[in-house]
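Reminder to self: C-alpha cells first, then the designed residues, so the page reads top to bottom the way the pipeline ran.
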C-alpha cells in the first residue's frame, strides 16, 4: 500500500488558454520579461482568446501557468512584408486575425525562467506546428527577439551581420538560436519591430517555418472548413421595446418581464435585450415624490431581488438576457453607477458599467462613469454591452471588437426623437465601421411620478453591416415607434466573418495600425463587494 504522505508528482499539461487563465498569464509575463517591456492588459489577452481560441496555448505545471503562446491567422501578403509588432497584431489584441489567412502568425511565446529545464518552449512550438498543419496553413511567421544583440553591438554594429553570425553558429543568441534549432529560417530583419525591446535595439529576426505538406501555391480550403465547425452559425436575437407603466409590487414588475422572456424563449431566441433604466418602473410602486438621491437608494434595495429573479429566468427559459440597466449606489466609494447586468443561460452573471453618463444622469442622480469595458464570452461567442450614450463614442465599440466582439448590445433610454436618433445613427455607424451586429432596445410609455422618466421615445432595432450578405439598408429588424413589442432577427456569424475578410469593403483589415490605435488606460474599477 503506497505511503499516504508521498507527495503527488506535479503534471505538465499543454492546452488551449481559457479566460480564467488571464491572471496567471499576466503574472507569467511579468516574471519572464524585463520590467521595461509592457505586459498585456486583461482585455488584450481576452482578445487573443476570443479572436482565435484554438490558437492560444498555456503550459500548466503544478497548477501554475509556466508558458504561454499566442497566435492568429493572417495572409502571407501582410505577414511576409516588413512590419512592426503593433501593426501586425493590432497593438497586441490579435485583432487582425483573418478567418481566411494562409499563415499562422506567432505574436507571443513566453516561458517562466524557473521552468526552462522542462522543454516548455519546445512543447509550445510543437503545439503551434501541429495547429498550422491541422488548419492546412502554409507556415508560421513571426518576428523573433534578439536579446543578445546589445552585448555584441560593438563587434556587430550591422544587425544583419549579427544575425548571420548566429545563423552560422559563430555566436549564440538565447532566442534566435532556439528558434533556428526548431527549424525556423531567417527571411530578413525587421527594424523598429518592438520599440520597448531595448535588448534587441528594437530589431527582430523575420522568421518563417514552412508547412511542407502545403505547397506555396496550393489552396488552403481546409482552413475555412475547419473554422466553420468551431462556432454556431445562426444566432437568433430579440429586443423588447418595453412599456413604462405604473406597477404596484415587485411581483407585478416581474410578471411583465417574465412574460416577454417567455415569449422570446418560445421562439428559441439566443438573446433578449431589455432597455436601459427599465427598472425605474419599480419607483412607481410607492409612487412617492422622492429626491434623486433617495430614489437611487430605493432602487439599490431592489438590486439583489432583481439579479436573483433575472438569473432564474435565464436558466428557466434557456436564454441569455441583457438586463437593460439598473442604477446602483456603491457603498465603498459613495458612488452611483448605471450598471447593465448580463445573465447567461448557464448561470453566469456579468456586469457592465456605463462609461459615459449623460449630463442629465449626472445632474439628476449624480451617476458616475465606470472604468472598465470588456467583452463577455457566451455560448454564441463574445459580445459587449454599450449603455445608450456609450454608443456615441466609437472608441468603445472598437475596443470591444479588438477583444473579439461580434455582437454589440445597446440598451437605451431616450425621451424624444432627437435623442433617439443620435443613438440610432451611432448604433448603425458602429455596425458598419466594426463589421458587427448591433442590437438596441428602448423604453416607451411614461412614468409621470418618476423624475426624468416622464416621457419616452423609442424604435428598437437590429442592425447589420451594409454589404451583400446582409439585410437591405443594414436593418435586420426594427419595431413600430413607441409601441410595446418585440423584434427578432436570425443572423449568421459566418456571414459576418466572411464579410470581415472578403467583403466589398474591409473596414477592420484596412485600418491604419501604423497611424492610430485605441488604447485603454488603466484605472481602478469600482466594486460592489
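Designed residues (529 positions):
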Amino acid at each position: 500500500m503506497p505511503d499516504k504522505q508521498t507527495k503527488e508528482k506535479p503534471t505538465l499539461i499543454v492546452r488551449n488558454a481559457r479566460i480564467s487563465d488571464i491572471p496567471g498569464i499576466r503574472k507569467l509575463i511579468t516574471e519572464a520579461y524585463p520590467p521595461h517591456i509592457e505586459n498585456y492588459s486583461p482585455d488584450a489577452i481576452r482578445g487573443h482568446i476570443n479572436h482565435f481560441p484554438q490558437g492560444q496555448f498555456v503550459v500548466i505545471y503544478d497548477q501554475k501557468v509556466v508558458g504561454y503562446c499566442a497566435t492568429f491567422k493572417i495572409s502571407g501578403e501582410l505577414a511576409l512584408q516588413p512590419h512592426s509588432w503593433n501593426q501586425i497584431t493590432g497593438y497586441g489584441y490579435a485583432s487582425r486575425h483573418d478567418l481566411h489567412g494562409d499563415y499562422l502568425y506567432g505574436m507571443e511565446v513566453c516561458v517562466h525562467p524557473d521552468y526552462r529545464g522542462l522543454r516548455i518552449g519546445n512543447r509550445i512550438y510543437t503545439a503551434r506546428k501541429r495547429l498550422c498543419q491541422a488548419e492546412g496553413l502554409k507556415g508560421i511567421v513571426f518576428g523573433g527577439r534578439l536579446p543578445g544583440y546589445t552585448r555584441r553591438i560593438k563587434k556587430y554594429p550591422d544587425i544583419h551581420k549579427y544575425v548571420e553570425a548566429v545563423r552560422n553558429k559563430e555566436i549564440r543568441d538565447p532566442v534566435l538560436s532556439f528558434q533556428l534549432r526548431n527549424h525556423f529560417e531567417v527571411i530578413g530583419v525587421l527594424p523598429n519591430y518592438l520599440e520597448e525591446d531595448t535588448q534587441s535595439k528594437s530589431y527582430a529576426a523575420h522568421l518563417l517555418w514552412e508547412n511542407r505538406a502545403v505547397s506555396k501555391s496550393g489552396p488552403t480550403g481546409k482552413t475555412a472548413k475547419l473554422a466553420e465547425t468551431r462556432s454556431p452559425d445562426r444566432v437568433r436575437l430579440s429586443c423588447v421595446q418595453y412599456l413604462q407603466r405604473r406597477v404596484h409590487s415587485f411581483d407585478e414588475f416581474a410578471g411583465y418581464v417574465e412574460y416577454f422572456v417567455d415569449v422570446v424563449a418560445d421562439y428559441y431566441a439566443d438573446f433578449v435585450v431589455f432597455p436601459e433604466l427599465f427598472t425605474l418602473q419599480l419607483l412607481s410602486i410607492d409612487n412617492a415624490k422622492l429626491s434623486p438621491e433617495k430614489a437611487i437608494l430605493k432602487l439599490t434595495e431592489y438590486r439583489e431581488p432583481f439579479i436573483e429573479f433575472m438569473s432564474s429566468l435565464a436558466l428557466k427559459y434557456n436564454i441569455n438576457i441583457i438586463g437593460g440597466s439598473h442604477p446602483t449606489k456603491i457603498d465603498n466609494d459613495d458612488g452611483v453607477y448605471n450598471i447593465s447586468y448580463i445573465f447567461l443561460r448557464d448561470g453566469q452573471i456579468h456586469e457592465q458599467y456605463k462609461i459615459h453618463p449623460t449630463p442629465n444622469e449626472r445632474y439628476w442622480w449624480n451617476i458616475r462613469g465606470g472604468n472598465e469595458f470588456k467583452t463577455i464570452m457566451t455560448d454564441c461567442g463574445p459580445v459587449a454591452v454599450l449603455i445608450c450614450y456609450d454608443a456615441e463614442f466609437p472608441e468603445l465599440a472598437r475596443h470591444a471588437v479588438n477583444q473579439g466582439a461580434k455582437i454589440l448590445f445597446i440598451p437605451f433610454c431616450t425621451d424624444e426623437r432627437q435623442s433617439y436618433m443620435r443613438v440610432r445613427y451611432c448604433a448603425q455607424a458602429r455596425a458598419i465601421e466594426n463589421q458587427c451586429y448591433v442590437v438596441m432596445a428602448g423604453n416607451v410609455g411614461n412614468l409621470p411620478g418618476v423624475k426624468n422618466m416622464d416621457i419616452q421615445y423609442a424604435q428598437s432595432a437590429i442592425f447589420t453591416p451594409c454589404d451583400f450578405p446582409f439585410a437591405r439598408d443594414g436593418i435586420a429588424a426594427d419595431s413600430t415607434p413607441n409601441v410595446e413589442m418585440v423584434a427578432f432577427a436570425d443572423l449568421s456569424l459566418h456571414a459576418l466573418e466572411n464579410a470581415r475578410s472578403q467583403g466589398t469593403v474591409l473596414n477592420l483589415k484596412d485600418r491604419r495600425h501604423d497611424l492610430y490605435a485605441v488604447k485603454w488606460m488603466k484605472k481602478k474599477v469600482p466594486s460592489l463587494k
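Confidence is low (pLDDT under 50) at residues 219-230.
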